[in-house]
Amino acid sequence: MSRFRPINRETDYLLPPSVQDWLPESHLARYVVDVVEGLDLTDLERAYAGRGSEAYHPTMLLSLLIYGYATGTHSSRKIERATYDSLAFRFIACDQHPDHDTLATFRRRFGARFAAIFVQVLQVARENQLSRFGTVSLDGTKIHANASRHSALSYGHASTLEAQLEAEVQERLELAEATDQSTVPDGVSLPEEIKRREDRLAAIAAAKAKIEARARERFEREQAEYEAKLAKRQTQEKATGKKPGGKPPEPPQPGPRADDQINLTDEESRIMKVAGGGFEQSYNAQATVDTESMRVMVPDVTQAANDKEQVAPMITQLRSLPEGLTPTKQLLADTGYFSEKNVETCEAAGLEPLIAMGRDEHHPHWRRRFEEPAALPESASAAEQMKHALKTQAGRAAYALRKQTVEPVFGIIKSVMGFRQFLLRGLNNVRSEWTLVCLAWNLKRMATLRPRSAQWA
């Protein structure tokens, strides 16, 4: 007698199979479907004209994208393949198989509406008491653009190439006009050679025009900052009767610099320094994370490599959330976000800022953990008050939450969910994709925070 179970792949089902039997009740795919089907997607449904063949329902397509990003399947082609190979994707798709063009078009067409869907999911979390949104951490991470840094063209190199190509065009024009063309190599078509170089010259001219436009914007911004610094020094000199110390600010120089660059694949991405050293063509993805539940409250993407200018726009988005989602009282951020202006911005918005003003020393004496700083004078500035708060035991305990909330979120998104590079190009498209990534993270996190009885029902 055989001691093994029989292998028979030809056995038919006694009853028609049901997709409901394929997954356990606690599976993430079921949770994603339950939440998405409870959202108001009327705007998406109205966008379909009703002509031609019947379309896949936006609820199903959105669920496929969210579950795909939550499980590391980002490509529309891989999601299409997974509807055949994966039980979870088959369950979400109801045993249908939308092709990759349908999925990619849906993601691109409705990307701008993902922000409203993101807010609806926050409201679901609030109603289910999965978070109270009291303290938030703000941080940013560099994510590779869908472009290579080797496709970047600097203004100085563009000018050199332009001169070289113009000389080559002139040389070939002279050859084409010459009576004796015996010096032209066999197989060379002079009109094609000339056209190829003229096309490259047109592309370089367009790239230089865009770099020059950026340079004008930069000059206007730097000029305004320069004039503000001068006015501040003049006001200080009038008030004290003494010339302010330090070097006076230098006026900005107009025009593009030789190292100003533009990427020919994704012109809105920027060369940024990345963790571990080196530079890559990237975007700076920002996230405001609730310290209690580790859920993202506000996602955003910026072209600026520096985080210092991101406090005000992130607070504006935080305060624009619907009523009931904005009881936030405290904001944590690392030293990259510190400036006196940002501290004042937080206080004006009703937030207590705890922004590191510098790096703490490693291995301080153990007694310092139990010491309280001396009281501040009443004339202390907002930045001095924040510095004092960071030295208190309560302030140190609150700031310690930053590293254990927002940084693990980025780590899980990159290492577990596998999202290290944007698939879309252009700032607006990238913002939509980052919102989708954070939406997938939030649902993944909400599924984990469910009551244990619901998880194992």
Description:
The chain is of the alpha/beta class. It is 48% helix and 10% strand. The protein contains 16 helices and eight strands. The strands form two sheets. Strands 1, 4, 5, 6, 7 and 8 form a six-stranded mixed beta sheet that branches. It has a two-stranded antiparallel ribbon with strand order 2-3. Helix 11 links the parallel strand 7 (330-333) and strand 8 (352-355). Helix 3 (58-70) packs across helix 15 and helix 8 (155-177) packs antiparallel against helix 9 (190-240). The longest helix is centred in the middle third of the chain and has 51 residues, at 190-240.
Give the CA-based shape: flat
The CATH topology name of the largest domain reads: Nucleotidyltransferase, domain 5
SSE series:
HHHHHHHEEHHEEEEHEHEHHHHH
Distinct helical segment count:
16
- Category from helices, strands and their pairing: alpha/beta
CATH class of the largest domain: Alpha Beta
- What would the average pLDDT be, to the nearest integer? 87
Could you say how many structural domains there are in total?
3
Q: How big a fraction of the residues is strand?
A: 5-15%
Helix fraction bin: 40-55%
Largest sheet: 6 strands, mixed
How many distinct beta strands?
8
The second-level CATH architecture of the largest domain is 2-Layer Sandwich
State the separation between the terminal residues, measured CA to CA: 40 Å
Radius of gyration: 29 Å
Poorly predicted ranges: none
